Amino acid sequence: MKQSNTNRYLDLIKNGIFAENTIFKLALSLCPSIAVTNHLRNGVLMGIAVLFVQVMVNTTVSLLRNFIHPRIRLPVFMLIISGWVTVTDMTMAAFFREAYKQMGLYIQLIVAFASILARAEMFASKNKVAPSMFDGIGMGLGFLFALTIISFFRELLGKGSLWGYPIIDVKPLLIMILPTGGFFTVGILMGFFNWINMQYAKKHRSS
Amino acid sequence: MEFTRLFELVIAASLINNFVFTRFLGLCIFFGVSKKMETAVGMSITFTAVMMISAALSWLVFTKVMIPLDITFLKIIIFIGIVAGFVQASDTIMRKVTPALFYKLGIYLALISTNCIILAVPLINAGEKYSFLESLAFALGSGLGFSLALVIMASIREKLELADVPEPFKGLPIAFIVTGLIALAFAGFSGLITL
Lengths: 207, 195
Prior knowledge:
The structure holds 2 protein chains of 2 kinds.
Chain A: H1 2-19, H2 31-35, H3 40-63, H4 73-95, H5 97-108, H6 114-124, H7 129-159, E1 161-162, E2 165-166, H8 179-206
Antiparallel strand pairs in A: 1-2
Helix pairs in contact in A: 1-7, 3-4, 3-5, 3-6, 3-7, 4-5, 4-6, 7-8
Chain B: H1 2-16, H2 27-33, H3 37-69, H4 75-97, H5 99-112, H6 116-128, H7 132-160, H8 172-187
């Protein structure tokens, strides 16, 4: 019994990272994926903020699922989400001053993420606390993973550095730091993941 | 003098700091509804109207209620309440008063209620401490900029349907790359006005 439970949680986490990756598969919550990813540190911090909000919202909704009247569930979910986003916002403002100056607006806008509301509505309001929490962890990790990849490439190619430390000593491609570079990176990565999926499907069919 | 300042704000918000191409907001909606020209136009009209009204409402609440009571830290919760409530109300009113208009624009209204671009306008207004008229100008500029982006993108995507795109890039990935190219063009506007 214990074993099957652990497996189920692992599946939930895997699902969030690969099968239903917020950015590459569902194409939701795209705004910060481009806005904050010109610096690896910002990308990772944003990912962690979203992970935290997603887990806390899923847990709270799941805890309260028997007390929320179905009719007013969406406003209640919004209230829960904005509460946790306010907490995150104030924490970030207090502890990461420099990063917050660049991405404060986007932290506040986590509240309008379709993915968080969707998970609360589709998963957490129907499941027990532990699965909801792991679902939140999976979705959040998927988002963190996507943001890390995007910002890794953008900072490496655009500034020649990682996390602020210089890595390669050539003239960087300025375009990767500009908005254009963000759109290109996301588009190319999406295409790349589609391609992998297609190869995988082809192999499955032939074998 | 006042008028030039407002005009500058409109231009700056619509072209230089275009919501889609330089601030990256409303991307979900941007990629979602830009497949057809007709929906793009409907969406941009609704967006601009909702943006201006919600900017006005939240400016009133922010300066007249929240600042005196010293509860500005609650701005996220309150603004989203205002926007969602207003959208819900206009949905109901439009359904009763102008069914024809509702039939055309109603579906877009439902999509708007918790959209980041609508919420961003009051948040930026509050952050920059704009006056009432400045808030309105900023909202108008943002709405126009978003409409411009939607219309450009919709017309390109209608053509793109016919293009021969590599298989893995079909759909969203190529849309992203096209957006990147438009963003490059919009980068040319930077420095047009220094505020």
